[in-house]
Amino acid sequence: MSFSGKILDWYHQNKRSLPWRKSINPYKIWLSEIILQQTRVTQGTPYYLRFVEKFPTVHHMANASEEEVLKLWQGLGYYSRARNLHATSKIVVNQYNGNFPNTYKELLKLKGVGDYTASAISSICYNEPQAVVDGNVYRVLSRYYGVDIPINSTEGVKYFKSLAEKVMDINDIRDYNQGIMEFGAIQCSPKKPLCLHCPLNESCVALQKGIVDRLPVKLKKTKVRNRYFNYLIPIYKDANGNQFTNLQQRKGKGIWQNLWEFPLLESNSILDIEDVDNRYKEVLDGIGEVELIEFNEVAIIHKLSHQHLHTKFWILNTGIQIPNQISFEKIKEFPVPVLIADFIKAFKF
């Protein structure tokens, strides 16, 4: 039996029951693929279900605000995916009359849709013979064929795409593509793959050579940048006991674009209380003298793909109304990074 035939047989016996597999609606497949791009199925499934409930069609998402989409996305990270999700929903509604393009080439024109996502949607929804290549597929192909070309190199991307096209089953592309991705997630997993009971074990080059744990090969990651964040949380209590603070929206092209955070004092190293007392007016002018309290003595290290954020939170009690103040009750309505959400929970706003 051929490679693709064995993948299909395995899939038909072992596929998981996942909510997006009950449909070939391109909106739902697109939504699931964007959510799962850098997210595990167990983490992504609840998000998918919440999105479908709140935005049952692409029209519902297009009519929502970006903040609504970002708030629902909160906790998944890589927030550019959420911004692209919202932008694409508007494109589909306004330029395609609410109907997703039905070819790989047309799908590629959508914001945030690359080779993998376009291949997945076109094959699953429209049976177009396009090979998907994601992390799971890279792993299966590199191990089975014993290929040590780095998967994140230009050469590797081209090689594995070509290889995936050669071995795919064009007659049952919908199930084959889902099958090889599922196979990589469950059978040929990154750690502790189930080689003993694998239907491909008799012809797997990596298994025969004893190099399963060395494949696939990846080029070394970009050097991690350390940054030092000091979040200033001004707190004002009025005569009626109502409490207020301040949030600011991040702009520009950096991390967390358009999300909200407390006023930020970024430094070149970890600051102590005296440093913050001398510098808080750089970002919080107009609140006068404050009672400064260190919330966390040890900096929290929040790890992003290429950055480590060494973060401390500082409470600034003030007797003067805060410019653009927000009541404690409304804090949870804003889309914020996980780092800020965790603090809000810990502080019990």
UniProtKB/TrEMBL annotation:
GO molecular function annotations of the record: 4 iron, 4 sulfur cluster binding; 8-oxo-7,8-dihydroguanine DNA N-glycosylase activity; adenine/guanine mispair binding; metal ion binding; oxidized purine DNA binding; purine-specific mismatch base pair DNA N-glycosylase activity
Keyword NADP included in the entry's annotation: no
Primary enzyme class: hydrolase
Pfam families: HHH, HhH-GPD, NUDIX_4
Cofactor annotation comment: Binds 1 [4Fe-4S] cluster.
Catalytic activity from the UniProt record: Hydrolyzes free adenine bases from 7,8-dihydro-8-oxoguanine:adenine mismatched double-stranded DNA, leaving an apurinic site
NCBIfam families in UniProt: mutY
Protein name in UniProt: Adenine DNA glycosylase
Organism of provenance: Maribacter orientalis
